[in-house]
C-alpha cells in the first residue's frame, strides 16, 4: 500500500517534471524571440513570472504544459524574427504577429511548425523568399502587405486544409502554381508581380483575387491573347544590359529605388487627400491662438500623464515623453507612435525610417537613430539647432524627438511625393510619368535655397554633410526641402566608411575627413548631374570600372556629342537643350576637384536663376509658335 502510494507520487512528480521541462523550453524560446526584438517594453515577459497566467499574448494548452497560441498584433514590435525561437514551440497552433514592424526573412522553422494552424503575419515589412516548407495543417496563411519576393513556393500545394490564403501587396514574381486546394475559400494574390496564366484550379476565384499583377492573364482576368511584353518590370536607370551582371551594388541600388518609388507612387494619391485634410485641421487649430489656451493645456496634459496605466505605469511619465518643437501641436505621444501602424520607408546612414499612421490618421515619419554617440545634453542641443534651422520652407522640419538610453527617435512630417531620388529613378518604364525639366529645375533650385539657409545661419558655421537626391524631399506641389540636416554629427560613423555618401562625397573629404560648405556644393553638383542625366551617382563603365557621375559625364562629353549625356526622358520636351547645356556647366563647376574653384551655394543659385530668366522668354515664345502651327 505504502509502496503503491509512493509509486503513484513518483509518477506524478515525473509527470510534473516533464511538463515543467516542456513549458520551460517554450518559455526560453519566447524569451529569446522577445530579446531579439525591440518592443518598447510592451511585453511583460519576465523570466520570473508565469508564462501561462501572466504573459501578454500567450495562451497555453489546458494542462498548462505547452504554449498553444502567441498573439501579438500591433504591439509595435521592431526587428526580425530570430530562427530557433518561435520555431521551437512544437505545440503552437496560432501565431499572430500582424501589424508590427517585423523585417528580415520569415524563418522556415516557423512556417513548418508541426502544429501550426493559423499564421497571421500581414502588415509587416518581411522580405526575402517565401519558405519552401509550410506546416501541412495550416488553415489560414496571411502574408499580405509585406515585401516578400521570389516565387510562390510549391510547398503551398500540399496544404490541403488551407482555407484562407492572403498574399496580396507583396513583390512576388513568377507564375502561380497549380494549387489544387479543395478547402480553399478565400484567395488573394493581388498587387504582386506575378505573371503567366491563371491555373484552371483557381479560375473560380473573383477578379479581385488577382488584380494588380499586370503580367497575369486568363480567366477571370483578360484572355492571354496578347503576349505579355518581355520588358523588365523596373527598367533600369540606363542600359543595365550593357553592364556586366557582377555589379551587384548597382543593381541593389535600383532595387531600393524601386521599392521607395512603389511606396511613394502607390500612396501618393490617397495621401494627398489626407494631407490636405490634416493641413486644414492643423491650420484651424494653430490659427485659434490665445483663445485656445484651454484646449492647449489639455494637449500638454496628455504628455505628462501616460494614457494607459496598465502598459506604461512602470516607466513613469518622464520616460515616455516626446519633446515637441516649437510650433507643433503635441497631439500625440510615444504610446501613440508605438501603437500606430507603420511601414519601413528606407534605411539611411543615420537609421531606419518608418511611416507611421497614428490612430487619428496623422502621418509622420519616425526615424530610429542608430549608433548615437552623443549624450542627452548634447543631443538636446543639436535638436535645438535642427529645430531652429527647420523653420525655412526648404529645410525639412522635425516635429519632435525622443531620447532614452536605448532609443533615439526623431519625428517629422510625412512628405507625400517621396524624394527627388525616387522621382528621378523610381519605376522607370511603362506607367511612369517622367519628371519634366521645369520641375527638375524647380526642385534643384529649392534644394539649393535650403542649403543656402543652412550655410548662412550662425555666421556660416553649419554644414549639411549629406546632400543627396534621396535627402531632398518633394511635397505635393513639388516643393522641395532638404532633410537629414544635423543628424550625422550625432552618430558614430567615420566619414570614410559611410557607404551611403559614395558618389556624392567630394574628393577632399576622403583625405581630410571633414565636410565643408564646399563639399556640400560638390554633392549638390552631383545631384544636378543626376537630374540632368537621369543616372545614378555611380556609373559602371567598361568591365569592372565604376565611375562616379562627374567622371562619367567627362568621359562621355570628351568622346561624344554632349546630348548623349542627357536623360532620354528629357528629350521629349522642346527647346530646353540650351538650358540643359548651361545647367551642365554649372554642375561641372560645382564638382571641380579643387574646392576653391567651386562656386558657393549663393553663386550657384544666382547662376541657375540667370539661365532660367534668359531662357524662359524665348522658350515660351517658341512654344507658342509650335502651338500656332498645330492650330493651323
Ligand atoms: C521579476 O524580476 C524583475 C527584474 O528582472 C523584477 O523587477 C520583478 O519585481 C520580479 N517579479 C517578481 C514577481 O518577482
Ligand atoms: C485583395 O486585396 C486587395 C488589396 O488589399 C483588395 O483590393 C481586394 O479587394 C482583395 N480581394 C479580395 C478577393 O478580397
Ligand atoms: C542598350 O541596349 C540595347 C539592347 O540591349 C543595345 O542595342 C544598345 O546598343 C544599348 N545602348 C547602349 C548605349 O549601351
TrEMBL record:
<keyword id="KW-0723">Serine/threonine-protein kinase</keyword>
<keyword id="KW-0418">Kinase</keyword>
<keyword id="KW-0808">Transferase</keyword>
<protein>
    <submittedName>
        <fullName>Non-specific serine/threonine protein kinase protein</fullName>
        <ecNumber>2.7.11.1</ecNumber>
    </submittedName>
</protein>
